[in-house]
């Protein structure tokens, strides 16, 4: 090999080493990889002979949030079950849950509002009683599954006051004006609309949390509760559609509530009213593949807190929820 070819080969190898260093730095994503790249640069320094390359400073690691446990996920779900169970218990029987299933870690709160609905449709009354029993059973089941670390019931607002949670949700949906109140206990139709606010959110909450669960037995239990909540949601939606044939405002009200929920949980469309544009029924809110929507815990709390910002309280939970997961998403 002549001298000219040798020089070309040396230059080519040097360029390959530089390319390798650049590639290494580009793909190094962890603190250890960054430290390794600094060592590599020092070892391959092209400075004058005899000089010592200055080591690159080691960056401060970015703290990462601890991984959520199955207990955290179940406690988050328990807060939602407290809310649903109290609403249905009051609507169906005039009384809330017994004190023996409300205690636990965190601050135990009181329920504001709630009273028995004077149902005129015996079928709706029967639905309310069955769902109330189911939701109470969910509270007991999840508490038993978690054990001693189950969270207490937080403060819950299910009142019909003008500034209460139901009125705020109805006002956001355009169902009532400023200063007016929405009373979910006034009649069968208002009860169904109040239930509609909860049920779809419960389904998307369990669906969204399912990939976070690691224990198969816990996942099976969560899937079973998800199925029950989906039955409830389908029942409420189909009853509203049936009544909406004679009372079309019920159908348009569900679309307004759906739009209000979507405005709280971000830009993506994770919600649907009961009727589609072609006036066909829409009993199953789902994507183009007929797969039910998912919401993150933060998105669920956006709706529960009635706030599209990152907050830790408000709406149906005036003092926030108990447990590790308590912050809504910043939308």
TrEMBL record:
Q: Per its UniProt record, what InterPro entries does this chain match? A: Pigment-catalase-like
Q: Which Pfam family, an example, fits this chain?
A: Ferritin_2
Name listed for the protein in its UniProt record: Ferritin-like domain-containing protein
